[in-house]
Specification:
Length: 282
């Protein structure tokens, strides 16, 4: 960690905007979050290469502030030749961090591609570019939605780490025990690399509910009920969300989490409030 980095080891994730207004907003968000000295930023990638150019452009715009910025890269629906070209281009541009994923192809969008799972992508990156990239992969404390069992998913996670990943970032969750349990079980399988909790600030109930259903993250009943009761009162949702997520983050850090990775959705305020709460004495 450099002397400049935030002592907690925080990182922030963005998606590539597709309008001028979105790009302008992201640069403002980036500037505000950069003040908290994150370890890195990351930028998501549309499976099958659907946001490839926007991801690269966004990475290059974001990293102009001097903070390392990792493109996400998914293998589903892509040929090895395309992935090779992209990796070499990233290396040439001086990018040295990646988040390597399988991705999810929207239904009806072509075949699976040559690499079926993220462990194969990690192997491929190591074969093609050696140790150039620091590679992060995804972890699922509440299990990946397509996994046949928790055990099978955990074994697959360990395989992916053993293929040469340097760290893992989890899917978001609201139950700290699921994270602690996952880390403990992964350690028993010999995974030693940092497993960083992914944190989703709560700002909008209907979007969160839809997204959580799709990615298999459980919203505990007491949170759901409270958010439902607020209806359209976005101020109350934001205040409650801030309290719940700040408490979750404190518990994770107190329990030994090696950092926090925030899914910012390109908004500064909800993430900043949580970061500042967990840094203030409590
Ligand atoms: P994998 O690790 O390949 O796992 C997928 C499923 O296959 C799991 O059920 C696993 O148990 C199983 N499996 C894994 N390996 C094997 C194997 N060798 N044999 C049999 N079964 C196996 N999606 C995007 O499209 N773009 C993004 O930018 C993006 N960023 C993300 C960032 C983070 C931090 C996280 C947590 C998720 C992100 N996602 C993104 C979503 C991710 O692409 C999906 O969750 C996807 O369904 C799985 O990707 P993975 O890399 O975890 O897959």
């Amino acid at each position: 960690m450099s002397a400049q980095e935030h002592p907690l080891g925080i990182s922030f994730e963005f998606f590539p905007p597709n309008t001028d207004a979105g790009r302008e907003k992201l640069m403002h968000t980036r500037d505000m979050l950069a003040e908290r000295n994150p370890r890195f930023f990351s930028v998501t990638y549309g499976a099958g290469g659907s946001t490839q150019n926007r991801t690269i452009d966004t990475v290059n715009a974001v990293r102009q502030c001097g903070i390392s910025t990792a493109p996400h890269l998914s293998c589903v629906g892509s040929e090895k030749s395309q992935l090779r070209e992209l990796l070499l281009s990233y290396r040439e541009q001086g990018i040295d961090n990646l988040v390597a994923l399988r991705g999810d192809l929207p239904s009806g969008m072509g075949g699976v591609g040559e690499l079926r799972y993220a462990n194969e992508l990690v192997e491929f990156i190591r074969e093609e570019t050696g140790d150039h990239f620091q590679i992060a992969v995804a972890a699922y404390p509440e299990s990946h939605p397509q996994a046949p069992s928790f055990e099978a998913d955990l074994q697959n996670f360990a395989r992916k780490m053993n293929a040469g990943a340097n760290l893992a970032i989890t899917q978001y969750f609201f139950n700290a025990d699921s994270y602690f349990h996952f880390v403990e079980r992964a350690r028993q399988l010999g995974v030693e690399a940092p497993i960083i909790p992914g944190i989703m600030p709560i700002t909008n109930y209907s979007k969160l509910a839809r997204f959580s259903d799709a990615c298999g993250a459980e919203i505990p009943r007491w949170i759901r009920k409270q958010l439902e009761a607020y209806g359209d009162d976005s101020e109350s949702i934001a205040a409650f969300g801030e309290e719940v997520i700040s408490r979750l983050c404190r518990r994770l850090l107190d329990g030994g989490a090696p950092g926090l990775h925030f899914y910012t959705l390109n908004q500064a305020a909800p993430t900043l409030k949580v970061v500042d709460n967990i840094c203030s004495p409590h």
